[in-house]
From TrEMBL:
Domain GST N-terminal: 1-82
InterPro entries found in the cross-reference section: Glutathione-S-Trfase_C_sf (IPR036282), Glutathione_S-Trfase_N (IPR004045), GST_Omega/HSP26 (IPR050983), Thioredoxin-like_sf (IPR036249)
Top-rank taxon, per record: Bacteria
Protein name: GST N-terminal domain-containing protein
Length: 284
């Protein structure tokens, strides 16, 4: 079988750790792929219409994708103790933990978009904060609810691989002031499956058209509206980056627009994105 993998993906690592734990790792040829909505990987799209890894190519050529589905598939290939427990109480605990892990990884990726992956001018700090708060709340939940000794099931594997990615990408210092979670995580990381699958590598998706994308963004269109409303003539080749537009605008108190209007909301977002002071006033 082939596992189309990514050395810096929490989801891919979950599938590979699961394979190690059930003794199937040596049946996998692990092939690294870069994937990103900004850099299409046609080989992955041909197998998974979502363009994401991990993807497992089974011995009969069938493509299985989504890490949850891959783990379930692999778990069906062995006769040992199942990673997805059969006994209901244990099963739903494991699946719940897997769901928390998936949510944390999804939120962590969203945080990274708003921290470093989007062009700077279109990052949105409130969205970053909202996604980060999900991770904080999930870690608090785990600190309260995780058992002392990590059990070996899909929930623990998912949590450990997600936490390792959060640590690897420096998304959130989850170990600080959470002794239970920290000791749980440290113990799980000692497993051979974790030692054999350390995360490494950088996201490869720098889009050469990032600046053009900013020029095409809805935010830029709103800036255009705003300039027109203020009587500016918009040159056809205006540098559409919001900071270029705002920089020459004097911070005067006599610039008015209706409270709650599209312009008002756009400028509030722009001020947050650009970290500039509130030099604008509006009608109350
Ligand atoms: N729910 C999926 C998520 C997979 C996923 O988001 N993979 C990332 C790598 S960490 C990816 O390939 N992203 C490419 C994209 O979003 O286009 C799973 O569990 O497998």
């Amino acid at each position: 079988m082939k596992l189309l993998y990514q050395t810096h993906s929490p989801y891919a690592r979950k599938a590979l750790v699961a394979a190690h734990e059930i003794g199937l790792a040596d049946r996998l040829e692990v092939i690294h792929h870069e994937t990103s909505p900004l850099l299409r990987n046609d080989e992955i799209f041909a197998l998974n219409p979502l363009g994401k890894v991990p993807v497992l190519i089974c011995d009969d050529g069938a493509a299985v994708f989504d890490s949850n589905v891959i783990c379930e598939y692999l778990d069906g290939l062995h006769t040992g103790r199942k990673l997805i427990p059969v006994e209901p109480a244990h099963r739903y605990l494991a699946l719940r933990n897997q769901a928390i892990a998936t949510g944390m990884a999804d939120a962590g990726i969203a945080v990274r978009w708003e921290t470093e992956r989007r062009p700077e001018a279109v990052r949105w700090a409130p969205l970053r904060e909202g996604q980060l708060q999900k991770i904080v709340a999930a870690c608090d939940f785990l600190e309260q609810h995780l058992e002392e000794e990590p059990s070996l099931d899909i929930g623990s594997i998912a949590l450990a691989t997600t936490l390792s990615w959060i640590e690897f990408r420096d998304v959130y210092a989850f170990q600080a002031s959470r002794p239970r979670l920290s000791s749980w995580y440290t113990r799980f990381c000692e497993r051979q499956s974790m030692q054999a699958t350390a995360l490494h590598g950088d996201t490869v998706d720098t889009s050469p058209s990032a600046d053009a994308d900013v020029r095409q963004s809805p935010m830029a269109a709103i800036c255009g509206d705003w300039l027109s409303l203020r009587g500016h003539v918009i040159p056809s080749r205006l540098a559409w980056r919001p900071d270029d537009i705002l920089r020459p605008v004097p911070a005067k108190q006599d610039t008015h627009w209706p409270s709650g209007s599209r312009i008002d909301r756009a400028l509030a977002s722009l001020r947050l994105c650009l970290g500039i002071g509130d030099g604008f006033s509006r009608k109350q």
